[in-house]
Amino acid sequence: MGVALRTVPARLVARPWLLAFVPVNAATAGFGVVLPLVILVTLRGSWADVALAATLYNAVLIVASIVWGHLADRFPYRRGFLIVNYVGFAGLYGLLVHVGSLTELYAVYAAIGALAPAGASASNLLILEKFPEHERATAFASFQEVSMIGSLVGLLAGYFWTGAGRGLLELLAVLAALALASAGAVAFGTRGAERRLWTRHVARHAESLASRIRPPPPSHPSIPFFPRRPRLRPQPLARFSLWAREELRHELPLVLIAGFLFNLSANLFNISYTPYLYSIGLSAAAIFLVNLGNNLAQALVFPLTGGLAQRLGSDRLVQRGTYARCIGYLATAGLTFVVLARGNALGANVVVYAVLGGAIAIYTTASTLILYRGIVGRDTGSLLGVNSALGGAAAVLGAAISGLLAVLGSFRLVFLVAAGVLLVSLPLWTAATIAYQRRRTGDRRAIDPPPPVLPGGPRATAAAKTH
């Protein structure tokens, strides 16, 4: 089954009100870099403290995603959820300006994790409800590009702010103002839709699915996708065993496991990367510049990925993205063997992290298409729930492993482990491609039964086909 994914809209902004998402994406992108720097620079924390903060955040995020996803289906107030989300971000960012200890920071960061999923479903549902079917591909492509532009604005703001010698805590106040600007834009610049949809509808559009699992700002954990609240029923092991037997011939289990390994390696790497940059002597402004290179590469490569998927095929493209990501991890590990001057270290990391940004843009589009074609016509809610659970587990496990490796004090080991985990996923993608091709062949045989044998045997049948 061929699935198209539009990554370049006919126009940059399908509706002017989509610009309301620029400031909040700027705020979250900047916050993804500011938070570990506040731990390392302002509070004199360690790499292990950054990993612990990420572990707490992701653990809270998983539970909160289930709750907010259920509320989004129960109450159709999309604008209300977005306003609560963005005003909450502004208040919590402002609260962090006055943080005085790591314990206080952990508490506020966990609260941010509890609030973060509030707008995830609401933004997608608002677009689905306000755009007719024929405009949704363009709308979600615009949403993706507006989000990327916002991320670049946030990182540029951080670069110029810290480059001018201003404090990190004061930068949090700027980010709070950006989040508040989005809340005002949503409140006064958008209107609610008349029709009502549910979170399961998001999975019916490749573009909307891609917008939910798009790569997050570097060093900022992603929000899992929980389309529906999981049902609490007896005998979970027996039901899982039955599901596994039914799915044995399908490619989805392989896709889900490969995606889990990718997310595990990404979280392991990203959580450790900012502490690594700080350990080699890069300034806060330089670290923002490195992250800017990553986001800029994503913004440049992502619009090309839809066409690449059509020409090369999503199966081949996902392996190319995984290979490129692996090379970036190994290159970063290689940099730990070389003592570079500060300027050379900055340039090398800008290039490597840009390669990683382009790779994740390629991977995200290709893996979304593979996931989408596998869930079409099936129980999308349950399958995406499994995918989200695995994504959340990868985020928590990646943060925890990063914290354990921090005890050894070896960034090199972290980057090598991340590359190794990613390499393990490559044969799984190959196996998933083979399973998909076999399934397609089986489906065709079931739909197109063999022609009946005419009197006279096979020769008569062949003659009938020619006429």
Characteristic key phrases:
single chain, about 475 residues, mainly alpha, Growth Hormone, Chain: A, 16 helices, about 75% helix, globular, disordered C terminus
Describe the protein in words.
The chain is mainly alpha-helical. The protein has one domain: Growth Hormone, Chain: A. Helices cover 75% and strands 0% of the residues. The chain has 16 helices and no strands. It has helices spanning 21-42, 47-74, 78-96, 102-115, 118-130, 136-163, 168-189, 206-212, 236-246, 252-279, 284-312, 314-335, 342-375, 380-408, 411-447, 458-466. Helix 6 runs parallel beside helix 8 (206-212). It is globular. Residues 457-467 have low confidence and may be disordered.
- Beta content comes to under 5%
Total helix count? 16
Which ranges are low-confidence, i.e. pLDDT below 50, for 5 or more consecutive residues? 457-467
| First and last CA, distance | 30 Å
Number of domains in the coordinates?
Answer: 1
Overall residue-averaged pLDDT value: 84
Secondary-structure content class? mainly alpha
Which word captures the global form?
A: globular
What's a quick, concise take on this entry?
This protein is mainly alpha-helical. It has helices at 21-42, 47-74, 78-96, 102-115, 118-130, 136-163, 168-189, 206-212, 236-246, 252-279, 284-312, 314-335, 342-375, 380-408, 411-447, 458-466.
